[in-house]
């Protein structure tokens, strides 16, 4: 029976020994401190960069903005439920905006997968999504009857086109060069 209190006493004394005292704090080696700080900095560099995070936020904004415009368009045309049924279930390429919404979903999924999850450092994914978006919207504007449907016939395709090209510009002229510069400056030190 005396063993239990001895074990408890040993556990208490070992936990007290593992806690640093005030005198131990003053005896920290500066080299050890710098090594520990550098290890934390190394962990930070493995995360997503600020400029890439901003790009991903803008891609998310693209999806949400096009979705909001599409929902407004559904509501203006005579109620969300009836217009949603007409545009989705009875889809007609020449008069529906549903495909423009799906195009925004496509851009979002490809770009977030490529640049947030896979952390791709090349421009091919953004080039692909921008080319698909541009070609689709160009064909949609030429073939469809969207312009006869009022302001949304102009707004939704134009906004979608502009957002896709802003994403391309931002990735190509901000994200990739800044990350390459940060990587090169990190190797130099």
Describe how the helices and strands are arranged.
Layout: H1 3-18, H2 22-26, H3 30-46, H4 50-76, H5 80-89, H6 98-117, H7 124-143, H8 152-188
Helix pairs in contact: 4-5, 4-6, 4-8, 6-7, 7-8
Description:
17% of the residues are buried. The N and C termini lie far apart (62 Å). The chain is mainly α and 189 residues long. The protein has helices at residues 3-18, 22-26, 30-46, 50-76, 80-89, 98-117, 124-143, 152-188. 80% of the residues lie in helices and 0% in strands. It has eight helices and no strands. The longest helix has 37 residues, at 152-188. The mean pLDDT is 84. Helix 4 (50-76) crosses helix 5 and helix 6 (98-117) runs antiparallel to helix 7 (124-143). The radius of gyration is 28 Å and the shape is elongated.
Give the key terms.
mainly alpha; about 190 residues
How widely separated are the two ends? 62 Å
Please write the string of helix (H) and strand (E) elements. Answer: HHHHHHHH
What gross morphology would you assign? Answer: elongated
Structure classification? mainly alpha
Tally of strands: 0
Low-confidence stretches: none
- Helix percentage: over 70%
Structural Rg: 28 Å
- For this structure, the quaternary state is single chain
Mean pLDDT over the residues: 84
How much β-strand is present in the residues? under 5%
Please give the count of helices: 8
Major sheet, described briefly? none
